[in-house]
Structure formats: structure tokens, C-alpha cells
Specification:
heterotrimer, A alpha/beta (372), B alpha/beta (392), C alpha/beta (608), B: 392 residues, alpha/beta, abc type-2 transporter like fold, four-stranded mixed β-sheet, 15 helices, 5 strands, C: Rossmann fold
Chain lengths: 372, 392, 608
Amino acid sequence: MFALLHRIFILCRKELLAILKDPSSRIVLIMPVFIQSFLFGYAATYDLTNAPYAVLDQSRSAVSTELISKLESSGVFHRVANLTSEHEIAEAIDSGEALLVLQFGPSFAEDLYAGKEVDLQVILDARNSNSAGSAAAYINAIVASFNQQWRQSHGGGAPALSIEARSWYNPNLETRWYFMPSMIASLAFLQTLMLTALSVAREREQGTFDQLLVTPMSPAEIMIGKAVPPIMIGLVQSTIVMMVTLHWFHVPMAGSFISLYLGLIFFMISCVGVGLAISALSANMQQAMFYAFMLSMPLMLLSGLATPVRNMPMPIQILTYANPLRFAIDLIQRVYLEGVSLMTVWHDLVPLFVIAALTLPWAAWLFRHRLV
Amino acid sequence: MPEASVAAPQLDPHRHSVRAFARRLFALTRKEVRQLLRDKSNLSIGLLLPVILMLIFGYGLSLDVKNAPIAVVMDDSSPTAMEAVVGLQLSPFLSPIMLTSMREAEAKMLAREVDGIVRVPSNYSSELAAGHGSIQVIVHGAEASRASIILNYVTATLAQQGVRSLDRVGGIGKGGLGYIDVESRLWFNESNTSTWYLVPGLIVLIITLVGAFLTALVMAREWERGTFEALFVSPVKPVEILLAKIIPYFCVGIIGLAMCLVTARFLFGVPIMGSLLILLFASVLYLLVALGIGLLISSVTKNQFMASQVSLLVSLLPVLMLSGFMFDLRNVPLPISIIGHLFPATHFMSLIKTLMLAGNVWPQIIVQCSILIAYAVFFISAARFVTRKRLD
Amino acid sequence: MNAAGSAVQVQGLHKQFLDKESGRTIVALRDINLAIPAGTISAFVGPDGAGKTTLLRLLAGLLRVETGSIEVLGVDAKRDPQQIQDRISYMPQRFGLYEDLSVQENLDLYADLHGVGAQARVERYARLMEMTGLAKFTERPAGKLSGGMKQKLGLACTLVRSPELLLLDEPTVGVDPLSRVELWEIVEQLRHDEHLTVIISTAYLDEAERCAQVYVMHEGEVLAHGTPQALSDHARGRCFMARSPSKQPSRLLQSRLLDADDMVIDAVPQGGDVRFILNEQTQSDALCLRKILDGARVEEVSPRLEDGFMVLMRAKLHHDKGETDASLAAVSLSKSVTGADACGGAARDEVMIEVRDLVRKFGDFIAVNSTSFAVRRGEIFGLLGPNGAGKTTTFRMLCGLLPATSGFLQVAGVNLRTARANARRRIGYVSQKFSLYGNLSVKENLEFFGGAYGLRGQRLRQRIATVTEQFELHGLERTPSGHLPGGFKQRLAMAVGLLHEPDILFLDEPTSGTDPLARREFWRRITALANAGVTVIITTHFLDEAEYCDRIVIQDAGELKALGTPREVWVQAGHSATSPLNMEKAFIDIVNQARQSAQRNDKEVASA
């Protein structure tokens, strides 16, 4: 038993040395994680923070001015132009100068005082459907509350209704709160997969794998020795992302570190299983790298990272059951933001375990039985 | 060999001529094409991955908020209370589910079966009559942007409904005041589906993939496998080596582009409002930029693993993150936005979205095409400058 | 070409590299002056790290000329490397073939690039195919060829046209003797017909002997140059043959001679006898020498280039007293081991490896066909054969790296492919190309493989110290193994293979590409190991090395063609038992006989 552990230990040490000795590969393993955590933290935002707009106010009334000032006070909408005619609208939108144009008709104020339902025309640039959608919803909410206030202050009847809005787990509804915890798993995912995929392929290409196979090490030992170092590196990368999330972006962590790390370890094991299987199948490093990349792109996209899994059509949702990242992201978000314990998210662990249990033994079998 | 067959050294007398150039270029290009066709992994990245991505983006990904499930908990079942929430049913964005207990609603929310909860408290009608009625709205904040859109719609719908009911009860014009209704018109994307805005962006991603990621490995591969040493000691010029690398991948890029455009147009119904010719021209320009970046990375790193990592970092990642593909650059802090505008992908991204969804916006076309031309010239000449027939 | 008729003129050339890891500059070449006459064949010879490859690359315009000047075909290499590259052909040491292109496509590519016309191509291809024996494989992807075949294809790609100057960097490493003969025929014909200038770097001194000029290089300097005759003369009057009267293997007499390093510069087995060189002070009838020879008949022979080379190298090594004398340590090693020949006669009869009717097919292709042999403890057993004969395949099956299609095979009593992992502890394996972790240091490699074989703690430290001592790896412990010069890589690979004291050692072409000095050293170690009871299985292309083996097999096209002691194989080749051995001749005869009879059979089958 001790001999076995010793052999695995020296194999792990060799792998780590081989990976970390080269200064350029150390940089490649650490730098991108840092750059990406900051980049994602700042750039990956669906939050509407700056919506330039233009106004075509044909009514030139006190009401329209009041509504515009309410819009301005939101802090999100910034007026970039005052238009004078309808045909200027196209230019303002086409050029991308304004995300939206508010158009008050000539009889806007009169109709309103006459007790009519008045349309406020909002023209949105929907080239970015997300920004357009957010802006539209925002305007709707502002106008609704304006209706109430304005009628009240002008002696009209207004419903005595207040709406108490609350948001669970993310009080200010910041995209970052959602994105950064997902990044803890996803950023490590790509490189862990690539690193493992390359590990056996590199040894095959350089002929060292034969040298390894003639030693008394068994395929299972080699497999474990190959699996542990990428898991360790993956965990370090995850820790870096977590530190940035916690201490730079101040996204509070609701759950326990133990649950988070246990979940991460399960996730890494299944990743490494997939990586080793790719590695054992590839004839050379280039193939291993390409196949790893081929696989990682769709896995990342269909993980719920970019868009929710629930929005996907059913057949694709079923496919995502083979995607370790999907479960890892769900697990980490829930542990991190909602503070649930592993007991609550055990169902996320099952697929991860199944993926690992299928890929790892297969990879070990391929070590000896794949003929190059 | 017979004595008479070769009497003098067979030095090619035309080695400087255009014909010799064409012959060598053809030989090298044929070699590259053969290598490309025989390596399955290479082709699958160049042709299969774009198809997979197209399908994922077209069918799998959606950022749209449509018919978002909302739990409505009616602790007060009076007609007044029922009327307060009736507007939710009419909203195209929301699909309310009526529940009776808050506990049930919370359970559904935790299981992410609903995106939000609207709770009408048991004393709603009496409190409203007393002048301070209130309705609770809770959203699941984990997916922030979705939650914020839902929250805005729920709030707006409830408020508008409040005004409407009041008017109906009291009769319109009782106070002599009307109310404002928002009528949104979404230009360039009437139904505001995210497919329309994701698919043009995907074209940028795929061109980058073929141009920068695939080619980043081709030069590095030759350095790593030592195939250059023998090739260098021949009349081959560095320009010919580079051109021979560009040509096949240029074709793969064009095939990818064509596939994207056809699927975008006919499978997903994304319009091409601008001129197809200009669209192709701009895409070719960007493809050249991407090829230039790929070759430059490849020639500098001379190592496949490093090349792949660097090209992921400087070409693919910026496309995904900083080009306005998924995330609107208007919403990021200024320094990030400035960095974003340094990448050629950002300019092409905005150009292609305009050309497909908006039309020929000439000022934009001229400015952004010039930027792309400048980048293409810069990167390809840099790649040429770095590629020397030397081993040290 | 300039007035002096020199194809290449080098003056005051220095070249140094910056080692990025340590930040030190490494001097690769110092003060090189050459004038290579046009229309001749010249050779660069010397041990690893002598700077042969750097010099050739500089001539080819692949490296920047910093100090000194190089003029190739009248063109300044500093100013216009492209013009040089238009006019010369160059075969690098590691010819980078495009592995997914077929043999034909690789050839076509180079023919196109050099602008070889369609007419010239037809003739040239036919000749190249005949030389390389690649005609059968034109459609096969280059990546699927055996190591030697790849080398031959690289050579063929280089020779698609006749340039004004041909640079060949160790073109025959890993190429079997049959093809080497044909290669030299082509090169000599090119020189004769087309007045071509050829520069070749080689580790084979019998090849250098065919050149007009030989440059002996050592650590970046040219030690000596001249005609092979002139260089051989350094050993004139000091070369002798000793014929041992007894039946014992000549390597025993050889090691006795080498042990007397105060008198003897070099000794090698040759044709069943031992050839040796005395140092300047020693007379051939000196008393102590006669004691060593133990009645063996001695006659003076005329020196070969190799003898002259050995004299020059020894002189150089003695001159640099401060440096470790590699051969001295080898001597002391063998002294200690030969004395302790612990292995009794009974144990020597134990069969360590048994192979019966072994077959390996790849699809339709039969790589190894019904091969049977047995190897006893302490034997040195050689596997010989031309490229693609199935040597490496046999090897990989023995080591358990490849399953046999059918047949029986046992190594140390088990089949390693199916046996428990621990059975592999008894074998050591040194593969054809250097296959240790290049970015790990020497010490880390030793520690890793030691650990893999279950050594640890005190025992591991002890063994590492022993092999470091044995293989002269002092001071290199922290060097990344990928940065070691070729000869040291090979020593490290051996050190790793022997770290766990295996009973059986597998060596796949361990000496290909190594210089004569390193080969001497290597064989001293191998014979010492065999004396200590280690069974050694070795493949080699150097047929003179077959004489070190107790028994050899010759394989061709997957078939076993001959089996026995070198003398027995010589007889099987149809020579008289008493005539002097020539293993190269025996090999060529056996392979040719086999091929002719195969052709006859084919014809019979075809006519029937």
C-alpha cells in the first residue's frame, strides 16, 4: 500500500515539475486566470448602466420635461441629442449615437390633461437585443411610477399602491454577482481540460510514455498520477478567481468553503476524466489540443454561463446532462450565493460522479490498448 | 544514371521569375491544403465547430425574457386584489402561475421553476382603501439581468393596472387627467430575439477561430516538428511560405462565413439589410486581420501550446468579452471600453451588426473598413517581418 | 566560384549562443578557417557537441554570421543567404518530413520548390527509389514509415536535384549498411558527373575515409584536417592486430588491452581478432604488453582513419588535463566488474528470454513473421537487420508494449504484456530515440524513474550516486536533460535503464549517431554488465558492433534469416569458417541471398 502511494506520489511530483518548471507555462497557467477574472468582472455585464438617448419633443410641455427629468435622475439614461424632426431619428439610431429615442407627440400634454391615454413613442436600437430589452423594461417602470406621482401631484386620482420589490441573493441585481461565481468553475475548466488532454499526448509524441509503461506502474496508477496534478492546478486557479470575486469585487459568499471546494473537486475529477480520455484517443498534441478545444466551446456555451439552461429547447437541455460544467456552475452558484449545503445540491454531484466513473477507467484502459 | 543525362548543375535559371514564384507558391499551397484535408482535428475545428456553434447559438442560447414564469400568491382573494394582478396575464413577457401559499411559491423559486413571486397580502383591499395598499414583488437575483427585466415589467404592469382600475372605477377623466402608455418600437429587430444579435456576432467569432486560432498553430507546428530547416534551404521566400499558409485558411474562413450567412438568413431568418457585397468585403478584410494575428502569434511563439494559449487570450477572448458580442460595451467602465476598442474584432462586430440588421450606414462603413484595412496591413506585414529564414 | 577554386571559404569564424535558462553564453565555434575545394567530398567528424551541425547551418545561411566571414560559392553568407539557399541543397540532421503527406508528395514538394523539370524528375525519382527502396511505399504517409525509412526519404528529398553544393548533416544515422552503400554511390556519382561539391558531417569514420578532405572537430575547434591518409598517419607504426589463440570471445582480450591504458590508446574487436593502437612511448614487444597478450600473435597493420582519429582525440583529452577523461572512468568500471564475475556456470544456462513462432501483423502487413530464439543469462544478444526489418516491433513485443498477433513469448518467465506490473521490475529499457523528460533535470529524471521502480530513501540515493558515478554525470545533475549533448543523453538513458539493477536490459539502437569515442565507452559498459550476469538485448546498425555480441540474429522483411554466434553467421553467409570475419559482408550477403530467393519464389508463384 505504501509502495503504491509512493509511486503515485512520485508520478504526481514529476507531472507538476514538468508543467511548472517552464516559466512560460507558469505564466500561461496563472496570468490568463487573473486577466480573465478582472475582464469578466468588469466587462461581462448585462446590466444597463449607460443608455444614451435622444428626445424628439414635439409637445414642448411641462409634462414632457418632467418625465425627461425623471428619466435623467435614474442615472442610467443620458441625453445625447435633442431632435427637431422625425427624420433625424433614423440618423441618431443608425449611427449608434443613441440607444433609444423618446418621441412626445404634438398633442402629448393636451391629451393627457384631457384625460386620454397617451402614447409615449420609444424607438429602440435592437441590434443589441439585450440592451434594448432592458431599456424598454426600465422605461416602462419609470413611466408607470411617473403616472402615479404626476397624477397625485396634479390632484388627479392615483391608486394608493406601493410596490415593495425585493431581490433574493443579489439585492442590487448585478450581473457580476451571477457571473463571477460561475467563473470559479469555468475559468479553470478550459485549462484543466487542455492540460490533461496534452499530458498523455505529449508523452506519446515524445516517446516517454513507452518508458513509463515498461516500469512497474499499473495503468490505474498512471491514471491517478496524471489526474491529480491538473486537479491541483485547477483548484489553484479556482482559488484565484474566488479571491478576486470575494476581495476585489466584494461579492459576498453565503455558503461554506468546504462545500464549495468539495463540489469543485468533484467537478475537476470529471473534467480530468474527459481530458484524459481525449488524450488517450489523440495521436499527437495538436489533435489533443484541438479536440479539447472543440469540446470545451460548446460545453462552455451550454453550461448556463452565458444564458440560462432553462431557456434552451428540450433536446439541448437533455444534452447538457453530459456537461460537467453545467452542474458545476449550478452547484457553485447555489453554494456561493444561496448558501445551501452540499446536501441540497447532491443531485448536481451525481452526473459529475457518473462522468468521472465512465471516463477515467476508459482512459486508463486506453493507455495500454491504444496502438499508435 | 546515364552519363549524358545531366551535365551541368540543375540550377533553376528562372528562379527569380514570376513563373517560378507561382510554381513554388502552388507547390507550397498544395502541401498546406493536403495537410489541412488529412488532419481531421484541423478540419473539424475549421468546419464542424462553426456548424455546432451556429446551431447552439441559433437554437440553444436565448437571452430573451418571454413568458417568464411568475408565481402569484393571493393571500387576499377579494375582487380588488384579483384586479390588481390581472395585468400580469396580459403581458407578453410574463406568464403568471396562481398559487395559494407563499411556502409553495418559495419552494418553486428555490427550485428555479419560477423567476419571481408577486404576493398580494391578505389585508390588501382594506389597506388600499385606507390609502396605503402594497404588493410584494420578489425576484430571484442570481441571473441578474433577467431578474432586473422581469422586475421592471412586473412593477410597470402592476402600476399601470392600478391607474387603469382607478380610472375604470371612477370613470375616465374624473380627475381630468389621462395617463402615459409606453409604446416601444424596436428597430432592426422587431421581435427583439437575441438570435438576431447573437448570430452576426457569431460570424465574427468563427472568422476569428479559423483565422487566428487555427493559423496560430500552423507556423508553430512547423517550427516544433523541425520541418522548416530543410524547407528554408531552397529558393523559397518567406513571403511564399506565408502566402501558402494564408490561402487555404482563407478559403476555410470563406466557407465558414458562407455557411454562417446561409444559416443565418435561411434557418434563423436573420435579415441582411445592407449590401451583401459590402458585408463580404468587410468580412474578407477581417479574415485577413485574423490571419495576420494568427501568423504573427505563430511566428513569435514557435510553440503550439503557447501559440494556442496566446491566441485564445488575444483573439478569441476579446471577441467573446470585449467586442460587444454578448455584452454591450456601453455598459462597461471607460478603461475597459477603451481596451475593447483596441481590438479589431470590436470594429468588425459593430459593422457586421449594422450591415445585417440596420443597412448601409456609410459613415460607419467607411470608418470601420479603413480601421480594418489598417489592422490587416499592420498584422500581415508584422508577420512577414518576424518570419525569417533563420534558426536563431 | 573564385580563383582559388574553393566552393566554401570560412575565415576567423566564431559563433556563440545565449543559453536562455542560465543566461550564459555558450561558445559553439571558435576561430574556424576552412577552404573547401570545389568538386570534392569533404567530411566533418568529431564527437557530440563539436559544432559540426552549427557549422553546416551557418554555411546554409540558417544562422547569423556575427564574427568572421563565410563565402559559399563566391557569395557572402552574411549579405545574401537567399542566393546561397537558391544554389545549394541541405539535409538537416533531423529532416522534417511532412508526416501526413505521402512519400511521393514529399518528394514532389521539394522537386517543385527546386524547380526540377518533369523530364529530369522521371530519371531522378527512379534512381532515388532504387537507392532508398521506397518504391513500394510511395503512397504511404511519411509518418507511417520506420525511423530508418524516414531518414532515407529525407535524403531522397534532398537529392531531388543536383545543386552546386550539397550539405549533409549525418545523413546515414539509423540507415542500414545496404542503403549506406547505395547512398555513397549516388553521392560519388554526382560528384563525378556534375562536379558537385559535397560536405558531409558523420559519425562513421569508414564513410569519412571515402572523402577527399576530413576535418576533425572537437568542442568548436578544428583539431586537424587533411586527407584521410594524412590523418591516418598519426597512428602509423602503432597499429597492431592480435589474434587470440583460444576460443574465447575477442572482447575479453580487448578489455585486457584497454585496461592497460598507460600503453594502449585503443582496442576494438575486428574480424574475430583485436585491433589495438599503442601510445608513442610503448614498443610492441614491451614486456608488460606481452603479458597482457598472453601468447596472442601480433602483427603490425596499416592504420585506418579511425585509428588516426582515436590518436588525435586521446591526445586532445590528455592535453586538457583538467577535464574528466571519460574513457578512464569506463576503464576503472570494467576493471571492478570483470574481477567480480560472480555468475556461476549453472546460472548462465538459465533461459531468460524465449520466443517461439512470434508473429505480428499490422492489417495485411506482416511486420514480424514466425520468429523463434532464446537468450540465456549474461548473453549479449544482437538483433540486426535493414530498416523496416521488424527489429523494433520485436523489441516492443518483448517489452510488453505491443501485443503479439500469435506465438509464444516469455521474458524472465512471464509475458510482460499480461504479467503483473511487478514483473517489469526485472527489465530495463532504453528506447531508440531519447525518451526521458527533457525539461526535468538529470537528477529529477533519475529520482522519478527510481521511484517508479520502487526505490526510495537511502537505497534510491545510493543507486543514484552509483549510476551518476558510473555514467559520468557529475556536475550535470541540475541540467535539464533535454539540453544535454547527445552522448550524455544516451548515458543518462542508460543510467535510468540500469538504476534498478535489472536482470535484462533492452537497448534499441543505442549507438546510432554516436561518435567512435562514445561507442567505445558504451561497449565497455555493456560487456562489463554482461560479465556481471545481466542479459543484454541490443539492436544496432553498426555491423562491427555485432562482434561484441555473443550471438546475433539477422532479420529481413520480418523474417529471421540467420541466428548464431558471429562466426556461425559468417559461415551461414557462405564463407569459410577460418577466413577473417567481416560482419558487414556477412550481413549484406545474407540479406541479398534472402531477397533473391524471395524474388525467385515470387516469379515461380507468378509463372505457376
